[in-house]
Structure formats: C-alpha cells, structure tokens
Amino acid sequence: MAPVAISSRRVADLLRATTPAARPGLPAYQGIAEGLRRLVADGRILDGTRLPSERDLTAALGVSRTTVAGAYAVLRDRGYLASRRGSGSVVTVPGEPSSGGPLYPSDGLGEVVDLSLAAPSAPPGMVEVFEEAVAGLAHHVGGSGYHPFGLAQVRERVAARYATRGLPTDPDQIILTTGALAGLSLALRGLIGPGDRVLMESPTYPNAIAAVRDSGARTVGLPLDPSGLDPHALELALRQSAARLAYLIPDFQNPTGILVDEDTRGLVGRALRRQAAVAIVDETPAELLIDIEDVAMPRPLATFDDRVITLGSASKTFWGGLRVGWVRAPLPDVPRLQQARLSLDLGVPVLEQLVLATLLDRQGAVLEHRRAQLRRSRDALVGALHDRLPDWRFSVPPGGLSLWCELPAPRSTALCDAALPLGIRLAPGSAFGVGGGLESCVRIPFALEAEVLVGAVDGLARAWRTAVEGPVRPAARASLVA
Ligand SMILES: Cc1ncc(COP(=O)(O)O)c(C=O)c1O
What we know:
Mean pLDDT: 91
Order of helices and strands: HHHHEEEHHEHEHEHEHEEEHHHEHEEH
Oligomer: single chain
Number of helices: 15
Strand order of the largest sheet: 4-10-9-8-7-5-6
Bound molecules: pyridoxal-5'-phosphate
C-alpha cells in the first residue's frame, strides 16, 4: 500500500475522541501508546501510515517530548511501529495481513449459518420470471446471440431507472456486465495501468480490494469515520498519494451501512475535480433503503460530478444468482470501456438479460418485499445483539445488508474461529481492511431470515466468550464473499 502521512492534529483529535480519560497510575506515555494501538486495531490509522514526528505530536498533544518518545518506543517494542530511513515512523500491524483476501461465496443452502455473506435469497416469483423469459427467447434465437454491451431494451430500462433517481442517462452510457464486480474489473482495465494508485474506503468490500490489487494497481486506504465519508480527508489522501482513481460505496456502504448525504456528495464531487481524480462509484446496495418513511434517498454521486463511473447490480436488489450488473460511464469514456470489454468476455447471457428487463419493470413490488424482509431481519438482529451482546457497539443503518460492530476487544479472528464449530461462518473485520487492523470489528449481515439470525446471535454470544477467554492468535490471511 502506498504510504500516506497523518497530521499531528488529526492524531491528537483521534486520540482525544477515542481514548478514555487517563487511568490513575497509568503513565501518560503508556496511555498514548494504548490509544494509538487501539486506533490501529480499529482501522482508524492504517498499516503503512507515516505518523507525525515526535516533535510535532508533542506540540499537538501539549505533553512532554519524552512522553511521546516513550509512547513510540512502546509501539516499536510491540511491533506496531517501524522506523524507516527517510520515512520516519511507519505503522505496521503485527502478525496481520495488510488486508484480507477476497470472500468466497457459498450457496447459503448448507447446514452452516453463513454470516460471511451479505446476500439475500431471491424474492418470490423468480422462477416464474425465468419461465416468462424463456418464452421471450423466441425473438432472439434467430440472431447470433452476441450483444457484448447488452440488449437495447435492457440498457433503456437501466437508463430510465437512473433518470427517475435524478440522473438523466443515455442508454449508450450503459454496458451490461456479469455483475458489479465484473464491472469494476472492466472499469479498472479501461482506466488504469500497473502501479497506478487507487484510493479505497477502509473498511470496504473485500473482493473490490482484491480486484484493484489483481489489476496491478496499488491501494491507498481512506479510514472511514463512523460519521461517514469525510470529503476533506478524501481530498488530502488524494493529494498525498497522487491517486487518480477512487473506489467509493456511498449508498449503504459494505460493510458499515453508511449512507452519504447530498451535501457531502457535492463536496466529494468538488474534491475529486480539484484533485483531477475520477471516482468509480459502486451502487450495488443503493436500492436497499429500509427506513423509507424517515430517509429521502440522496441523488447518485454522478449527479455531482459528471466524470463518475457508476457500477450497478441486480445482485442485492433482485438476486445474486442472476449474475447481471452494469457500468454507467460518461459518453466520452464509453469507447475505451467497450474496447476493454471485447477482450474480457463478449456479454451477458440473453436469458438473464430478459429476466432483468422484467424485474426492472416490476421493481416496485420486488423492492417492497425486499424492504419488509430486511426490516424484519435488521430489527431482529439489533434486538438480539442488544440482548445477548450488550457491549458490542454499532449504529443501525437506514438500509443495506449489514451491521458493522465494534467489539470490546480486538478478537475478531478468534471470534470467527470460535463460531465455526458452532455452525456459524463469519468474516473477520480484517478481511474488510485496506491497510490492516479492524481486528476490533466484525460485520454481521442481516440478509437471512429473522429467526435464523436470532438463533445465530445465541451462538455468537457463546463464541465471543470463548474468543475473549482464549489465547490471542494473529489474524489469519482471510480467504472468504459478498
Ligand atoms: C459493494 C459491492 N459491490 C459488488 C458486490 C458484488 O456484486 P455482483 O454480485 O453484482 O458482482 C457486492 C456483493 O456483496 C458488494 O457488496
């Protein structure tokens, strides 16, 4: 990961906001070391970040130079800090990978309760929609079946959906793909080369981290505050890292569930333009607003910056088994994305495209069902966690598919290890980190039925007891999904 410096003021603010008042008898340098260690563990300060010099942090904290020197020495001793010639003191995460690997999907049909996956089952009526689509194939079998950018009737419907969300779109701006992840790979192919830097929120969707790294690009992490995406921090990170591409999930972010408001979207658009950076905006979870009575959906980020490349997907709105998504690109970028497409694959199966067209026509009813299901599951999960694991902290997102929980101790990997023998599969927090850490966090999706989740929380409470009582094991290189 490319190194990014953090200012002394930012470190001082983070320490003040997250470290409890000094414990009596604990020397000040140990308090600062412990505070910094926690900030690394919960992903607010990323692996590879350059800390301020001792002198600068001394001034920002208003303590003595020996206090800061002592804190840095403790961190160096414990493997959290490396001194690099010319780079000062750089954060390292002992025993942990710099981030997890991609998540491997399971079919969700086995004995194990799969909480490593944030993906709902198909809504009722899916088989019938496929049957209708089979009948519709009659119009297509006389042709070659090759539609590398998608059938016109599907691209028109996808474009019309953007228009109803406040973003007028020409169907020629749409390229259908086999899912949003394939759309990301396509965009990366078309837009960047090896060694380029791509800024990503941390935590973020693990398979997107893997897609960026496998494209030969270098990831730059932007720690997400619980309050959401900070446009100033985004701009600073773009400037410091010279990243010209940013991958963002502004709608019910995976895994945090954060929904970026319209004002912030405007500021993000301006920051991107000032830094000559283009955003790939992944809207896979964007249709999953649950609290429709309380929250008005902000307009798409591309409304605020017409250079944005948007990724969409049928996977969460409808069903992951469809394997259909799309890229919406500014018209001048379309030819090079089409070119990239032609050497990747030659399109999405016609049958699945016809299914998507029908589902888009019936979107209102499908979403109503999805919303009711997610509301039941989210609220049941929240209730069960408050009841059985009251010291886990989380905000309740207004939509999306998961809760991002802060654990009272950095034992996420141990929790996953302890949960598996109890029949619960989980992804550790570190799998979502761009720059390590996040051992204090775990994502709990609410895509499964409410009763299943309530039962699973019983298991999680038992697993958590085992995790806090057992020995600390470094986070494993996670190989895990959605
Ligand atoms: C943000 C995000 N993007 C993309 C995907 C994968 O989407 P698709 O199935 O369309 O490839 C997921 C799945 O969880 C996701 O959360």
